[in-house]
Amino acid sequence: MKWLIPGLFTLFATMAVSAEPIRIAHVYDRSGALADYGRQLQLGLELGFEYATAGSNRLLDRPLQILEKDSQLNPARSRGLLAEAYADDDVVLAVAAMASPAVIGAMNVAADFRRILIVESATDAVTGAAWNRYVFRVARSWSQDVIANALVAARPGVCIAILAQNQDAAMDSVAVYRKAVNKLGAVVFEEEYVSSADEQVRAALQRLVTALSERGACAEKYIAAIWVAGTHPFELLADDALDFGDIKLSFGSSINQVTKRRLLEVEGAIDYHFQSPTNAVNDWLVTQHLRRFNSPPTPYVAQGMSQALFIAAAIQKAGSTATEDLIEAMEGLSFETPKGRMIIRPEDHQALQSMYHVRLINQDADQPTLQLLREIKPREIDLPIHSRP
Description:
By secondary structure, the protein is an alpha/beta fold.
C-alpha cells in the first residue's frame, strides 16, 4: 500500500490548493468625511460578487474573501494598508483610492508590487500621466463626466459661461469641457473661478448673468457649473432673487456627491440613474436594494457592483488569479453592469460606459426629483487617451 501514499498526498495537495480563498482587498474610508461613500462602494462590491456567483461567493471553485481595510482618509495610511495587503495578505488584487490625494501613492504601490489595482477615483491622472499597466478603472472619469455634460448643453450657436471651483481638478475639467463644447459648435466665452464662499458664488453668478445678457445673438445661453466637492453653487439659488431671464442652468460635471439639495430646474449628465435602460443586472440591483434597504441604489453602490462584476468576469475569463493572466483578460474585456455593457479600453484601462442626461426638478422643497431624459452612449463620448507618452 506504500505506493498509494504519494498519490494521496498529491490529491490532498490539489484539494488544498483549489480550496485556497481568492483574497481581494478593499482599502477605503470606513471612517472620516468620505465614510458614507466608502460604505456604499463596499456594499456594491458585496452585491456584485453575490450576483456574479449566484450567491455561492465562489469563483474557480474557490471561496471569495474581501479584506476590508480602513484608510481613514489618510493617504499615507492608504499606501501602507495597500502594501500590507499585497505583501502580507497575498491578495490577488486590490480595490482602493477614492479620495484624490491617495490616488498616485496607491498607483505607485501597485506598480512596486506588480499587482493589480482597481482605482475608485474619478481623477483624470489615473488614466493620464500617472498611469501604469497594473491600474484599471471601472468608475467613470472626470473627463467622461464633463464631456457628457458638454453634450447636454452644446450645439452650434450656443453661448456658455462657466462657474468653477478654484481648484486644479476643476480647472483641468474646465479645459476638457471647453474643448468638447468647441467641437460641438458652441463657445465658452466667460469663466469665473471661486471658492465655496456664498458671497463669492453669488457675485460671480451675477457677473456671468450680466455678461450673457449683453452677449449678442446666441441660439441658447447657459451657465454651467463645474464643481468637484462641497456644496454645489446652484444650491445657493433656491431662495435667491437673481434673475436669469432666458439663461439656462447646466451641471458641467456629475452631481453624485450630493444626495439632497434645493435647486432651480437644471439639466446635466450623471453617471448612473436607477431607472437606466432595462437590463438584468440593474433590475436585480434595484429590486434587491429596495427590498433590503427601502431605497433605490446610489451611483456609488452601482459603481461598487460594476467593479465586482469586472473582477469576476476577468477571473472567469483568465481561469486563473495570476497577475499577468488577469491583465491579459482585463484588457479589452466586455462585461455587463447595472449601466449595461462596459468595455475596458486596452490603451489606458478605462471602462467606456454610458452616462445619463437628467433634469432636476424641485417638486419637493427638500427632495428634488431627477427626471431621466436619455442615455448618452459610450460612442458619443469622445474620450481622449492620455496614458501614452
